[in-house]
Design brief:
This is TonB-dependent outer membrane receptor. Keywords: Receptor, Signal. 4% of the residues are buried. The chain is mainly alpha-helical. The protein has one domain. It is globular, with a radius of gyration of 12 Å. It is built from three helices and no strands. The longest helix is centred in the C-terminal third of the chain and has 12 residues.
Length: 56
């Protein structure tokens, strides 16, 4: 879950000129691969990751 939290933190970084926005997600505990798919569906943002990193 630490990797997912780090990913969500990094994805949230935007240029200073961009208007800040707030998005609340309620994703259940799950393996990283499924969590990233759920995050992608919920945000409409593509998440690209090496499949080796999602294997548990």
């Amino acid at each position: 879950m630490g990797a997912l939290a780090l990913l969500l933190l990094l994805v949230g970084i935007t240029p200073a000129s961009a208007a800040p926005s707030l998005l609340t997600l309620d994703l259940p505990a799950q393996d990283l691969e499924h969590a990233l798919h759920a995050y992608s569906r919920a945000t409409g943002m593509a998440v690209l990751v090496d499949r080796e990193l999602t294997r548990g």
